Amino acid sequence: MSERDALSEEAAQGDGGPATRRMIIDTDTAADDSFALLVGLLHPRASLEAITVVAGNVEFEQELQNALITIEASGRAGEVAVFPGARVPLRREWHPASAHGDGKGNHDFPHPAQSVSEEHAAEALVRIVDANPGEIDVVAIGPLTNIATAVLLDRDFPAKVRELWVMGGCDNSVGNVTAAAEYNFYVDPEAADIVFTAGFDVTVVTWTLTLARALWNREQLARIEALGTPLSRFFTILDTPNLEFNEGVSIYGSTHPDSLTAMLLVRPDLIERSSRKFVAIEHGSELTRGYSLFDDRADRNAPNARVIDEIDEAGFFEAYLELLRTPL
Q: What is the domain extent for residue 146?
């Protein structure tokens, strides 16, 4: 039995949680997306079946390279396929993020040995899920273009996915792109609308929760750097531009919405409170483009999603710290 398998068995016996969650991570790979990929690649309860890439944070070819760089940094080069997906939103121009530099810490990593696959991400999503109905979780941490395209390719796709975990929205509060909208929903609101009306068993981790419970200050980041492991060094390189950007806009720490989403899937014990709500995405108005309506009045709107309301924030940090101790 390998060390990773032994850890998986020990974790499952330790608190009654699932031994593994088979997952596909759909990503617009920048820093925290890479940290989410590390959860899928290295956590003993995760089995990462594929990585699909969508237009989002940084230039698309760079996103592909960032995913490959992360696989190599995890010591799993060639083991997990990367599928290129939508290079633009369904109907709109691509809108890059400004918080991530090139998404890899503006650092010159060696060129990855692994190449991306030729199959389109949406087709790969449909194929893998169709071959494993009810067994694959999809973790969507970028704009939802690939997921919406998979729905358009196969209307039964939502019913075959075990659970869809979405990082997006801001629970009726101020967004990080406009006063109305969080980035992932702002970039492709039409795709988000398709996804939230398609019938997935969906769980949402919001930007609102991130600012409240997944913001790591310089003291915490110093603890990560002090580990001195290859993974902690990789983390620090990638995280630095995000930290510097955030401090420039009075957010005092680095933000971790994507890695939180992936970690909660494999560590549900970190969820302290969740609620069933109706979630809808505005796509008809430019003023409120990407606004996410969250309504907990079941008599007005039938709930279509579970929303994570509170987490064990110290537990999340410690869980990620432990991940970065993983021997390579």
A: 3-324
Among residues 54, 63, 42, 44, the alpha carbon closest in space to that of 6 is found at 44
- Whether pTM exceeds 0.90: yes
Question: CA–CA separation, 104 vs 241, rounded Å?
Answer: 9
Q: Where are the alpha helices (DSSP H) in the chain?
A: 3-15, 31-42, 60-73, 121-131, 145-153, 157-160, 183-187, 189-196, 207-213, 218-227, 230-248, 257-266, 313-324
Residue type, position 224, single letter: I
b/e map 295-326, b = 16+ CB within 10 Å: eeeeeeeeebbbbbbebbbeebbebbeebbeb
Q: Which of 271, 259, 245 is nearest to 322 (CA)?
A: 259
Q: How far apart are CA 234 and CA 20, in angstroms?
A: 25
pLDDT digits (tens, 9 = 90+) for 199-216: 999 999 999 999 999 999
Q: Total domain count for the chain?
A: 1
- Look up residue 99 and give its DSSP letter: S
* Of 206, 164, 192, the residue nearest 281 (C-alpha): 192
